[in-house]
Write a structure and sequence with these properties.
The chain is of the alpha+beta class and 318 residues long. The chain has a domain at 11-207. It contains 12 helices and 6 strands. The strands form 2 sheets. The protein has a 4-stranded antiparallel sheet. Strand 2 and strand 3 form a beta hairpin.
């Protein structure tokens, strides 16, 4: 048995056919949500994580390159993401209908994700923008127990004549899912049929989590307290045990001694005595101004005295 494939259609021809078919569908009243991927198909955390997870499976390695080409040249005319299912229209040689079914995230996996991410995600904005801690990212993107489906959880169908499990049209749709997650990351949770708001802790849950973390803080043992403060603690503990021990005398406040001050009357009497002695000394030192031909000599005690005039040199007595 052999299969006859349709002739190759250039990119320009596919784009022209896609534009024509899009106009017809819109005229019929169908709402289309096309995906035009750029050179870099996904840019956000969620989109890149989806594409990286997709490329990690060797079963898809042969068909993914052609799928990237279809995703970049605008061949995906419509992409609708529903709970557990993706519906799409891809323009190839003809317009092909795509349907991808993904199993619901197992309940135990979702419970494990919520338990391990408790306290790691602060708000819905952090979750949708991918501003997560490294541990939360590792939990959500884990290949086995994370949010992304494994190949065994995916069933796909395409109306094209290719009998391969993953044709280029299906690969293009899978890549475009990653591009859609750039702008609408909540669709991943919708696709896996779980509520992403359950990852955001409520006020009560946040309070209990904070109390649980604070109770885990390390406390000092009694022996460590004795080493730190240099005191001996009763091993029985408690206020009753503490009351049975000997009481230490209360420390008296330190009083700085001051020098004894003499009475005010004694101070006044002593000052008067000093003033009187000073006056006497001054009186003893005060003497008359020496006259002519008189000499002044200093007394050993500090008093000045005058001597009689000395006879002139060269003249004898008469």
């Amino acid at each position: 048995m052999w299969y006859r494939f349709r002739p190759y259609v250039s990119v320009a021809s596919r784009r022209a056919r896609a534009a024509k078919k899009t106009a017809e569908l819109i005229k019929q009243g169908r709402v289309l949500v096309p995906v035009q991927a750029e050179r870099k198909i996904a840019k956000s955390f969620w989109g890149q994580a989806w594409c990286k997870h997709l490329e990690s499976y060797s079963d898809y390695a042969n068909r993914l390159p052609r799928g990237r080409t279809y995703a970049r040249n605008g061949s995906v005319l419509d992409l609708q993401i529903h709970p557990g299912q993706v519906d799409a229209l891809v323009q190839g040689s003809e317009l092909y209908t795509i349907q991808i079914k993904i199993e619901r995230l197992p309940a135990n996996n979702w419970a494990n994700i919520k338990a391990r991410c408790a306290g790691e995600i602060g708000s819905i904005i952090e979750l949708l923008q991918g501003h997560l801690s490294d541990s939360a990212m590792a939990i959500i993107t884990h290949p086995d127990g994370g949010m992304f489906p494994a190949p065994r959880q995916i069933s796909m169908s395409c109306s094209c004549p290719d009998i391969a499990g993953l044709c280029k049209h299906l690969a293009a749709v899978l890549y475009c899912v990653g591009a859609r997650l750039d702008t609408q990351p909540e669709l991943l949770f919708k696709l896996r049929q779980v509520d992403h708001l359950e990852l955001i802790p409520t006020a009560d849950a946040l309070q209990s989590l904070t109390q649980a973390k604070s109770s885990k803080r390390r406390t000092l043992e009694s022996t460590e307290l004795a080493d730190v403060f240099g005191v001996e603690l009763d091993p029985r503990g408690g206020p009753e045990a503490g009351n049975k021990g000997p009481k230490m005398p209360a420390a008296k406040p330190d009083v700085v001694p001051q020098a004894a001050q003499p009475p005010a009357a004694a101070v006044s009497k002593k000052s008067a005595g000093r003033t009187k002695n000073a006056a006497r000394s001054k009186k003893r030192l005060a003497v008359a101004k020496p006259g002519k031909n008189e000499s002044v000599v200093e007394h050993p005690a500090g008093r000045r005295a005058t001597r009689q005039p000395q006879p002139r040199a060269g003249k004898g007595r008469r």
